[in-house]
Amino acid sequence: MQIDSCFCIKDFHFTVSLISEDSTVLEKTAFPFSVVTDSDPLARLVEAGIVTGTGGEVDKLFLLVQRDRYLLGEDELRPVTNRDIEEAWRDAFSFYKAEDRGLILLSGQTDGEGRLVPFPPQFFCKARRIFFHPPCPKCGLPLQQCEDDGLLDASGLQPYSGSLKRYLYCTQCASTGRAEFYTYDEEPSAPPVVRDRRALIRKFRLLAEGAKDAGQFPCLQCPDHRQCYGTEQRAEARITPFSFYPFYAFVFRAMSLNAPDFLSLVSGAGFDDVESVLEKRQERGRINRLKDIRQRGNLAKAPFLFDSDVRSFLEVLYLKLCFLGEVLRCICRGDDLLRHPGLRPSVERIWVSLPGHGGLLPFLWNFRVNLIGIFSPPPGGGSFHEPPGAESLFYTGLLWFNTLLANSRQDASTVNSSLRDIMDHCRKGNDFSFQAPGTKDPDTVFSPVNIFWEPEGKTVSEEFIPLWHKALDLSLSLLRAGFAPEPSFSMESFRQQSEDLRKEVRGLMFTEAPAGRAEEAPAPEDAAVYGILRGIYNKWSAGSATDGKESTETVILSPRSPEKETAPAPPPEQPEQEEAAEVVEETVIISRQDAGRSTTPGEPPEPEKEKKGGSPEGGDFLEETVIIKPAERGGKDKKDGAK
Fold first, then answer.
1. Within its chain, how far is the Cα of 232 from the centroid?
2. Residue 82 near residue 161, CB atoms below 8 Å
3. I need a surface site. Which of 324, 499, 526, 598 has the fewest CB within 10 A?
4. At how many degrees (to 10) do helices 259-266 and 284-297 cross?
5. For 400, phi and psi rounded to 5 degrees?
6. pLDDT digits (tens, 9 = 90+) for 23-76
7. What value does the mean pLDDT of the chain take?
8. Cβ-count burial of 541 within 10 angstroms (0-12 exposed, 13-18 middle, 19+ buried)?
9. 284: phi then psi, degrees, rounded to nearest 5
10. What is the per-residue pLDDT across 177-187, written as a single tens digit (0 to 9) for each?
């Protein structure tokens, strides 16, 4: 069956992105599709999109595609088989489908009972930009995956259900005893009936020459088939498997940034810093996502609310706690972490979506998190002395520590090495807490300045250290619960503690005046007014006015003489003088009842407020009158009274 290079729905098409539009570049590349990330051992994330008939892009998509070659090590004690892989995909499908996790369901992806089914194998012609189902070179019928363990065993091959080996074959040819098997990679020890993908592509020559009817095999009508199968032998360069075997695939709306890149920006890294790291790792897909974000806002550095303030530590800690809270939201169901085989919430399989438009807050403050991947069993026990009892909790704990501590100077391996020493200490029955009285950070790895991308030269206020130690202890509680399951551990309680810590950090960030921050000296007039109002506030707060009898105090203030003075009541009428014309008086009457009340500027006072000698209820209350004058332009200071 032939499939066009685009899956057409009226005027909209689902298309897989290529690394280039130049055919010569594509022919030199084994996998010409734009890979976003390749870290998942069972799948690769490929860029895709929805475009119009005229080529205009409607939306960017991510396509999670099952691999032809799994990145899993052999482990006889913990074997993984094809059936295990199928189960992992079905579990992941249930996970993404159960809640709003961004999965876009495709036609033909499920059977009549709603169960996940694989797509047929797809090969791609780089010259004509079309997909097609690989046919049998002998009879032209579509090749299928052999899951008949008896036939495989009789042919000297490993069974499908008991290994990770997969083979394509033709059911028609097998029924006549002429079966040939095709595998993605060459197997030197395989029997003669096995061919690899390159041999299969070369054997398409039999169909291209018209020896057999191959239905919609595209090479039959291609005018360039002699270049591919003649003396030039260009078929191997022009034809490549998109998926050699039947494959599972999930479609998601494209996310903005991979989690490690997002966390680097949150830590204070510039876009150039992150791009440099990705260049060394040849992560072209993640670089493209980073450039897309950078071009959207034309930013050279991630903006912050408190970039040059001592509270920058609180801001970074707050954003990282928000990120971790989003991760918990993704992987928790009720009071427990998601349980499907070997869940490992690897940070590379966490993606962050940022808003596509500007806002009042820095763009890193508004984000959503999603997991995109197949969470496969680990290939081994890792770098720790023994495998954890609950992998989900253990690896989530590692994720917490690395989110808080990884920076340009220390990577995950450095952080994990120090954690191993702490866990060894705990395994021996010794308790450990970062919050214990007198306990210092056991290693410079855990210093609070490591929350920043460039920790050198950074300082953290002493009043913030307890919050940092709380965050580390929360992370440690996950490791402990995973390494040696504790009946007292509750995921619901953990989530509540993390939420409480996040609120505490936010409260301190916005409501406290951090120690050590230099403040501008106020103008003399502002200082005088502030001093008077502060004195009134302190008097009321101290409860000095609770005896029911309070004096009336009139305060006259000018810029030259900010101190308070008691003034006599003025005469009923003020003679018009030159000095008086140059003075602007402002009288502010503040009562305890008015202290917490705001009024509209220019609004006339209520009649009760103009009474002298008592409150509207008839009781005595304190009146304070403040007369504020601008600097006089000449003449003597004039003391005026006010009612």
1. 48
2. yes
3. 598
4. 50
5. -60, -50
6. 889 999 999 999 999 988 899 999 999 887 666 778 899 999 999 999 887 767
7. 77
8. exposed
9. -65, -35
10. 888 999 999 98
DSSP string, 207-230: HHTTSS--TT-GGGT-TTHHHHHS
According to the model, what pLDDT value does residue 308 have?
80
Please, which residues have CB within 8 angstroms of residue 19's CB and are 6 or more apart in sequence?
Answer: 25, 26, 29, 32, 33, 34, 284
Q: How many CB atoms lie within 10 A of CB 105?
A: 12
State the DSSP string of 289-311: HHHHHHHHHT-SB---SSTTSTT
Amino acid at 191: P
Q: Are strands 144-145 and 12-16 parallel, antiparallel or unpaired?
A: unpaired
Nearest by Cα to 18 from 127, 102, 106, 104: 127
Closest C-alpha among 567, 569, 610, 570 to residue 591: 610
Residue 137, pLDDT above cutoff 50 = yes
Vertex 327 angle, CA 260 and 408, to 5°: 20
Determine the distance from the C-alpha atom of residue 463 to the mean position of all C-alpha atoms in its chain, rounded to a whole number.
Answer: 28
Q: What backbone torsions phi and psi does residue 332 show, to the nearest 5 degrees?
A: -105, 140
Of the chain, the percentage scoring pLDDT greater than 70 comes to: 67
Q: How confident is the model at residue 112 (pLDDT cuts 50, 70, 90)?
A: confident
Helix H or strand E encompassing 243: strand 239-243
Q: Say whether pLDDT at 235 is over 70.
A: yes
517 and 309 Cβ atoms separated by less than 8 Å: yes
Round to whole Å and give the CA distance between 271 and 275. Answer: 6
For residues 266 and 453, what is the distance between their CA atoms, to the nearest angstrom?
A: 8
Tens-place pLDDT, residues 439-477: 655 568 999 999 999 999 899 999 999 999 999 999 998
The helix (run of H) or strand (run of E) holding residue 589 is strand 586-590
Written as one string, the DSSP assignment of 39-97 is: --SSEEEEEEEEEETTS-EEEEEEEEEE-SS------SSS---HHHHHHHHHHHHHHHH
User: Which pLDDT belongs to residue 467?
Assistant: 96
pLDDT of residue 299: 52
- What's the CA gap between 399 and 334, in Å, rounded? 20
How does 393-414 read in b/e, with b if 16+ C-beta sit within 10 Å?
bbbbbbbbbbbbbbbbebeeeb
Q: Which residue has the tokens 């995909």?
A: 89
Q: What is the 3-state secondary structure (H, E, C) of 458-490?
A: CCCCHHHHHHHHHHHHHHHHHHHHHHCCCCCCC
* Amino acid, single-letter form, for residue 38: D
pLDDT, tens only, 473-514: 999 988 888 777 667 788 889 999 999 999 999 999 987 554
Helix (H) or strand (E) holding 27: helix 23-27
Q: What distance in Å separates the CA atoms of residue 168 and residue 195, rounded to the nearest whole number? A: 10
User: How many other CB atoms are there within 10 angstroms of residue 377's CB atom?
Assistant: 20
Whole-number pLDDT of residue 171: 94
What is the pLDDT confidence band of residue 643, given thresholds at 50, 70 and 90?
A: very low
Place of tokens 């080529």: 55
Smallest CA-to-CA distance from 624 within 542, 538, 561 is with 538
Q: pLDDT band at 82, cuts 50/70/90?
A: very high
State yes or no: pLDDT of 170 exceeds 70: yes
